[in-house]
């Protein structure tokens, strides 16, 4: 976990480096949209990244060991598979808040006094990181307990895999010990995150002297999300026009062609058709779960005394273990992944809401509004929600690919739908053994997931079509009004 955390922090630093450099030099206007590379990185399934790293780096190139756990060199590939997607997501969240920090009065004042750009960037990080520290703690717990698929691919004895095997074997003592260890880790991570946040903010939190981290300007006009959305809808529409269940054993593992644009799988079925028909089981469920998680997370995040211990407990349960518990209660079926992911997807949003709410309550304008006699409902409606909802909504959009990945991971591990259902996780699981012979069968659904990630990240940055420019109206001189002068005799 420690190595994966280092990779996570390094990846987040790489994602935010350009914004920090431009913002510390008062050149945020050159920032642009960007984020496509980090979106693709965040949307790649961890188990697929692990499979590619093990096959290419470990087996073909032989640079690093691919299986087992015998020393520090064996930690690098699993750490990359876990840390790259998590770091890309955390970096996007931090990159979203940095412009608000650079728009505060202290930043231009520091630049005018000749403060080095490196110091300005460091203070901007200090201003933004406290709101994301609870999520960093959630990532730490997730990297420990939620790495079951990666641990299974690299054959490493991790806590998540041990707990999962105990749940499958109904080994209650080991299952209870593993779950208790995850809960304790979540509690320690949450306590450290809250303590570090208070230390970073300093007396400003106690003295109610903070400012809101609102975006300084509206997002620039961009059509990129519409382009990504049109491509995604086009791929799904083309797939829906085909039959995903037709078998052609004479066309097994065929490469992409005019007849089969995405190739065929091991049974000769059209991969494009299976992607299109499996979109509802992955995308529609992911959107519905994300919307429910946003509503639940905001409502519970506004009640930190109630949701704090609950968030720590829920975050200690990885989606895979939640899937096993759901399967044990409700049985395995198409609804099992949705129920399991929905049970845990709200926790990061609730933690983010609570962290932002604590800082917003310490702002000067909220203190002034209280002094003017505003009641709690007025404060919530006019001051707190307008400051909390936009970043949490963008956070939910950024997590949309993660929800889809959690659904596919449960399908990959066999906890969801059964063959021949064209669910995307099942697609990846069925075609993974043939990744060296027919990589298109795995890369096609992975590319659609990456496209979903790019769509979510660019849409989180704001969608606004450029207005057509109309020529300025030509001002014509007003006609002179004739004044009748009386004649004097």
Report on the architecture of this protein.
- The chain is mainly alpha-helical.
- The chain has helices at residues 2-24, 36-43, 46-60, 76-102, 106-112, 117-145, 148-154, 159-169, 172-201, 203-206, 224-240, 271-277, 279-301, 304-315, 319-330, 335-344, 347-361, 364-371, 376-398, 400-412, 424-431, 440-460.
- Mean pLDDT is 77; it is low at 472-476 and 480-489.
- It is 67% helix and 0% strand.
Reconstruct the topology from this structure:
Layout: H1 2-24, H2 36-43, H3 46-60, H4 76-102, H5 106-112, H6 117-145, H7 148-154, H8 159-169, H9 172-201, H10 203-206, H11 224-240, H12 271-277, H13 279-301, H14 304-315, H15 319-330, H16 335-344, H17 347-361, H18 364-371, H19 376-398, H20 400-412, H21 424-431, H22 440-460
Helix pairs in contact: 1-4, 1-6, 2-4, 2-22, 3-4, 3-7, 4-6, 4-19, 6-9, 6-17, 7-8, 8-9, 8-15, 9-14, 11-12, 11-22, 13-16, 13-17, 13-19, 13-20, 14-17, 15-16, 17-19, 19-22, 20-21, 20-22, 21-22
